[in-house]
Amino acid sequence: MSKNNDELFKNVIAHAKEYGFVFQSSEIYDGLSAVYDYGQYGAELKNNIKTYWWKAMVQLNENIVGIDSAIFMHPKIWEASGHVAGFNDPMIDNKDSKKRYRADQLLEDKIAKYEKDGKTAKAEALQTAMDDALKAEDFSRLKELIEEHEIADPVSGTRNWTEVRQFNLMFSTQFGAMAEGSDEVYLRPETAQGIFVNFLNVQKSGRMKIPFGIAQIGKAFRNEVIARQFILRMREFEQMEMQFFIKPGTEMEWFAHWKEARLKWHLALGTSTEKYRFHDHTKLAHYANAATDIEFEFPFGFKEVEGIHSRTDFDLSQHEKYSGKKLRFFDPQETDKEKQSYVPYVIETSIGLDRMFLLTLINAYEEQDLSEGDKKDSRVVLKFPPALAPIKATILPLTKKDGLPEKARDIMDKLKLDFNLQYDEKDSIGKRYRRQDAIGTPFCITVDHQTLEDNTVTIRERDTMIQERVNADDLEKIIGDLVSWKKVLA
């Protein structure tokens, strides 16, 4: 069934709610904008994506270790990192709708429309002009571009805009038992700083030698004014980040290495290479000397999923300056005594877990017409890589009698120690298959009357719907091989 992209995206969002993947947060109270809860299958899928990242990053690299730093951090950390002074977005308000927008995103939407309409030259010219204005922090120029390209408010349809001004994205709160005299602290807007301030702790306690990395998965918080496209842009989100500490002067070599390694990680899930692209930054952050995004083609266009940044020695140098503590690496094998002690450079890989979740959901979603002649039939299937699937297999007794449920439960009890399984005996076997297809379960194991005679069961494969008769005693190995992490990690 062919769908236009808007309809496809709406169907994915509806499917995510109907089948327990993602719910609007606080929905019974009319929800909270740009905040979402992960349902029973969403939580499993999210955990499996985290596991895949952690195994690929920490388990497979002897020189990368993982930590879990606190969300609350000393306020000075955010001064040192530049977030207090410079963590701002250029915002513009429409006077008629009273809605606030990010100026650069309004322009990006216009660029995407030009590209869609085949106006490539216009798109490129606007992209260059916007990049120049952002680099120079020329907010009046951003407003001029919005006016020149006749960008209207999507709500009111008018072009009655305010000036562009900056808006800080950090959430602040009070830290202390009493409201008076308590300190103002921030909910962390990124997880990276928790790694940087623990650089020396990890290096010394783990006897780490340069080059080495510190990985972390954790929540971050940004008061995004523009919250849209489902879970793509949220106020509470999760990051999977790795900071790789290297010798100054080797950063371009390592930058290239991690660009290639991270794209391989994505493609190992079986995604088409055409769905991904690198987008090199023209406007670099103040701390970077090279930066690129790995972008995925969502139904609404290419969007960033992961960033790879060469952060130089900015972060550690800033924390040295603000804390008064030395954050250096001493290399006893360096013969030049002046070069033995140095502040390491850093290559960062940072992936949005929620965006990776959305990517995985969209990539897996498929509507299939299975009609034959006059017999109408269809199914919605989520073709997750088996290692990522929330439920690995479902045990289905053919009927609810004749000892089949007891035999099915016996098989499930043996397998559930190793795999996340489901048991389902309600409705016809066809309806049960469809339910499992809709949540992405790769294998269905049917227990029938023959099972009681010779201990064989039917195993059905989700994508092909092919069924095979196997011995129940072999299921542990069969399922184990089919859903193994080796399939993607190797």
Automatic annotation (TrEMBL):
Gene Ontology MF terms in the entry: ATP binding; bis(5'-nucleosyl)-tetraphosphatase (asymmetrical) activity; glycine-tRNA ligase activity
EC number: 6.1.1.14
Record-level GO cellular component terms: cytoplasm; extracellular exosome; microvesicle
Domain of life, source organism: Bacteria
Record domain Aminoacyl-transfer RNA synthetases class-II family profile: where: 150-386
Cell compartments where the protein resides: Cytoplasm
Binding site residues for ATP: 222-224, 232-237, 304-305, 352-355
InterPro entries (alphabetical): aa-tRNA-synt_IIb (IPR002314), aa-tRNA-synth_II (IPR006195), aa-tRNA-synth_II/BPL/LPL (IPR045864), Anticodon-bd (IPR004154), Anticodon-bd_dom_sf (IPR036621), Gly-tRNA_synthase/POLG2 (IPR027031), Gly_tRNA_ligase_bac (IPR022961), GlyRS-like_core (IPR033731)
Catalysed reactions, as listed in the record: tRNA(Gly) + glycine + ATP = glycyl-tRNA(Gly) + AMP + diphosphate
UniProt entry keywords in alphabetical sequence: Aminoacyl-tRNA synthetase, ATP-binding, Cytoplasm, Ligase, Nucleotide-binding, Protein biosynthesis
Binding site for substrate: 102, 190, 237-241, 348-352
One GO process term, biological-process aspect: glycyl-tRNA aminoacylation
Matches recorded under Gene3D superfamilies: 3.30.40.230, Anticodon-binding domain, Bira Bifunctional Protein, Domain 2
SUPFAM superfamilies attached to this UniProt entry: Class II aaRS ABD-related, Class II aaRS and biotin synthetases
Keyword Iron assigned: no
Self-association state and partner proteins as the record states: Homodimer.
Family statement drawn from the similarity comment of this UniProt entry: Belongs to the class-II aminoacyl-tRNA synthetase family.
Role description: Catalyzes the attachment of glycine to tRNA(Gly).
NCBIfam families listed in its UniProt record: glyS_dimeric (TIGR00389), PRK04173.1 (NF003211)
The protein's name: Glycine--tRNA ligase
Species in which this protein is naturally found: Mucilaginibacter arboris
Encoding gene per record: glyQS
